[in-house]
């Protein structure tokens, strides 16, 4: 279709010419030939001419910093949509290596810009991608995408989502900051491959999943609020007014401890710190549910372990102590049976209003 510095000969000769160009400057470059594919939606078939393709490819090269180098451009007609290929020497005519720093990010941004500039059709997400033509990790990535999107669509909360993913052979892990408890993202893994939600699709990054399933920190806050106030109510119910005064002093109203719905700002711990204080069998169960980053500042943790981590900031200011039936602090505590009845249980139901209730 078009070339500069590359004669339109057979494939073997073209490959040899590219190899010769790679020796300029004695750079010993690992990938001396760049390859870019330009795919146009079939809805644009009446608009895509050789002239338009040449114009778009040349502008793409310019924006990518691919200048003063030899290249060849071809157009293919073997699919139901037009597409072209461009191969170029990554060693320019002066023997300098063309930079590929942040190539994927720059390429994605430039392609989006050119698509909008020339008024080309933009496909909705990844639905229309031909899976049969994908290979290697890209094929696995789309398999993950299809499974995760299906699970997201059929689930109403985080617990259902986690369970549905496991049924598909995938695990949901959260990128957790071990210092401040901040949730930094989500990843999906099958044990061999791992993709972040952002890598799969913007609809699968943490913010998008939070919009559908709820903010886990806020859900935790609501859960603890309802459990704590319910527990206090039961203590008031079984004690006289004198004892209730002591109870109110030891366990003030939740909104006094966390006024105006403010969540705790500290008290978070690392998964290792949490597990170290738990029975050995509990630690063993959760070993596969978390993995520390190389610097140990962050971890990747499963949903159940994450919930335990998010509860930690509430443990000290809202601790409940004493044995069943009574204690030495001036009030009657719940009996063992009642303690089990009002034991904290995490509820994942999500609502924009504060309607989460303790599960009995």
Give an overview of the whole structure:
The protein contains 14 helices and 9 strands. The protein starts with a strand and ends in a 19-residue tail after the last helix. The model is unreliable at 352-360 (pLDDT under 50). With 360 residues, it is α+β, with helices and mostly antiparallel strands. Helices cover 42% and strands 13% of the residues. The strands form 2 sheets. Strands 7-6-5-9-8 form a 5-stranded antiparallel sheet. The chain has helices spanning 11-22, 50-64, 103-117, 136-154, 158-167, 197-200, 206-213, 216-238, 241-250, 254-257, 271-275, 280-286, 303-315, 336-341; strands spanning 2-4, 33-39, 71-76, 83-89, 171-177, 183-189, 194-196, 290-292, 298-302. The longest helix is centred in the middle third of the chain and has 23 residues, at 216-238. Helix 2 (50-64) runs antiparallel to helix 3 (103-117) and helix 8 (216-238) crosses helix 13. A hairpin with a 5-residue loop joins strand 8 (290-292) and strand 9.
Task: Using brief descriptors, characterize the structure shown.
single chain, 360 residues, alpha+beta, five-stranded antiparallel β-sheet, four-stranded antiparallel β-sheet, 14 helices, 42% helix, 13% strand, elongated, disordered C terminus
